[in-house]
Every structure is written in structure tokens, then in C-alpha cells.
Amino acid sequence: MLEVILDTETTGLSVAEKHRIVEIGCIELKNQIPTNRIFHQYINPMRTSSEAAFKVHGYTDDFLSDKKTFSEIAESFFDFIKDKKIIIHNAPFDLSFLNYELKLAKKEPMNTSNVIDTLELARQKFPGSQNSLDALCKRFNIDNSKREKHSALLDCQLLKEVYINLVDQKEPKLNLTNVEIPTPNFSQKENNNKKLGKVIKPNSKEIDEHKKYLKLDLTKNFFT
Prior knowledge:
disordered C terminus, five-stranded mixed beta sheet, alpha/beta
């Protein structure tokens, strides 16, 4: 199944305050390998960005003023993500904004059954640790030095690497269920004879001759 890494940038932190999306970025993967297909759009939010949001992404109201609205790009966006698994970091945030935009555009909400939240994956794998995108980049030695400002497409590139590290099995698994280790059986006389050979005991004459040999002064053979 094809997968899509998805990220958004917004005018603020809450749809309750009627904040909107200003950028959408998507990268398509097949078997966790990029297909070189991307979807990227700056969006006119039809309102001003908060000061805090501007500090995060750096998109001015003037820069966004001549961009298409979400309604104008919605069809091409959904064509790109259709029937694909969606990978998002902190999915509730992005989904709340996407569904708010869809509501304003009088369209059906997103289907969340095929969404994977990498923040939840990270929390399960590293409980109690910092699991922000930057923290995970540091954990997996992913270069995020270009992330001076947040950018949907750049964050998708970083999230792609994080996702692969979260789900990839780095160590090979050994299947030992069908391996039989033979156990030597020394309880049977027949097996013992095969391994050790037949034992021959000396007779009484041979024993007497051996005792006489041991009593000999062998040093005379060397020094006389």
C-alpha cells in the first residue's frame, strides 16, 4: 500500500479561534521508499497569522495573499492522498485543521482509519522521553540543521526519516522454531560400542608379566 507523509503549517494553534492552514506538504512512499511524487501548496488563509505562528514558519500575510485558497486546492489534495495510508506527527493537530477547512468548504471530513500518528508510535517505543520531531531527529541522528523555520515540505522530509526508523527492524530476527539440536544418547549399549569400540580385558598371565616389568631396575640399561 502507498503511504503519504503529511504536514501542515497554520495561522495559529486552535481551530476554535478560527485559525487556518497556510501550507500543506505531502511525500509519497511505496514500501517506505520515496516515489518522488510530492504535493506542496502555500494557501491563502483569508486571515492574518498570529505573531507566534509567524515566528514558527515565517510566512507573511503579504506572501500568502496571492496564493490559492484551500477550497481551490482541495480536489487536487484529495486526489493525491486517496486510498493511501497517511503518516502524520501529532495527527490530532493536523486533522483538526484539515477537517475545519473541509467543513468550511462544505466537504466530508477526513477518514482517520488509515492515519498513523508517529507521535503515538514514538511514545509507545520511548515512553517518558521527548518525542518531538526535533528530539526524534536527534535520537536517530537525522540532520535537521536546515530547520531554522518550520516548513511543511521540509518537515515531511524529516518525518519520512523518523517514520522509517520507528517502524524499521534494524536487527534480523532468527527463526529457531524449526531448528532441531540432536541430543547424544549414551544409554544404549550399541551406541556405546560404536563410539568407544570393544573393551578387551588382560588375562592373568599378562597381568603377572606386567607386574614383573614394573619391578625391573631400568636405570641399568642406561648407565652400565
